Amino acid sequence: MTTKIMLVDDALIMRMMLRDIIRQLADCTIVAEAGKPELVMPLFREQQPDIVCLDLTLDDSQVPAGITLLAEIKRANPAVRVAIISALEQQEITDQALALGANAYITKPFNSGEVAATLHRLAVMA
Amino acid sequence: MATELTPRQRVFLNEIFSAAAAAVSDKISRWTGHSFTVQFLDIGYAPLSGIAEAAGGSDLYSVATLLPVQSTVQGYVLFIFPELSAQVFVDLVFNRTIGESQAWGEAEQSVIIETGNILGSTFMNILARAIGKPIATSTPLFLIDYTGSIIQQVVMEHALMGDEAMLARTRFSKDDLDFEEYFFFIPAPGFLAAVDACLDARESGAGR
How far apart are CA A70 and CA B112, in angstroms? Predict the structure, then answer.
């Protein structure tokens, strides 16, 4: 069965890099991409991905928008696996994301092997 | 007159910026796939009007990213690249021949914006660890203009909180390439008071 992946990152270059990595993975396909936080939930409900690759810094809100979205995504479907991909590497923020149900936390700039291995692990978690 | 750092503030900030330079060297090398060295030289406050001179001169055509910082610490992180250096940087990230990137399309701008995000966040991660509180950043902005005009835009539209910037002089180098990049932190007033509070807490903790 094909694993459906959604990409959420405001930076086009990051989405391009993630596309290249996911293209190499067997049985994975990108079903949606969002660069702005307001696009995330409508696309998420429409496409029902199995995995979401979620950046944290998406706008100028005081609480990183990715944290708010993570909570909404997990509320909408607790079975969805979420990989946070962020340049923020601070214990409190990492702990908060994991407490909200994030399944992985990858720091930018990422290594393509690390992303591929994480997505593979999350794909087989179903 | 620009703010003078006290000796203990200078020691604390030197430690943070030295650690940040080492971390940024690692991140920038991973990001571009090429070995960069980032060396921290010194730190001090300078009037905003002096930034353009410190970044190669007002008439130099440059590309910049402005990263808003909020929560415990507030302010902006500003990276300025002379346009030629920025193009080299884009070539490295895209694995293109040096000199190939000439125009600033969405993908090229995105490289510079993400570079500002990664490097600025790396600095804030280290500052957050030092002060023991999380620091969130916002999406960086992309600016392209003469350095003097970039600074003017930053001052008029963003840096309403003060009239001086903390200037951390850093040297970015890559073995075989000419590369320049300038780093500025424009903290909101009250930043040094937060540094002092952190140092007081450390000293009272150490004294117990």
Answer: 26
Is residue B32 scored above 70 in pLDDT?
yes
3-state secondary structure A11-33: CHHHHHHHHHHHHCCCCEEEEEE
CA count, 13 A, side-chain hemisphere, B58:
7
Instruction: Residue B143: count other Cβ atoms within 10 Å of its Cβ.
Output: 19
**What's this model's pTM, rounded to 2 decimal places?**
0.90
Other Cβ atoms less than 10 A from the Cβ of A38: the count is 10
pLDDT digits (tens, 9 = 90+) for A71-102: 999 999 999 999 999 999 999 999 999 999 99
Q: Please tell me if residue B51 touches chain A, with a CB cutoff of 8 Å.
A: no
Report d(CA B41, CA B183) in Å as an integer: 11
d(CA B60, CA B69): 26
B122 closest CB neighbour out of A58, A61, A87: A87
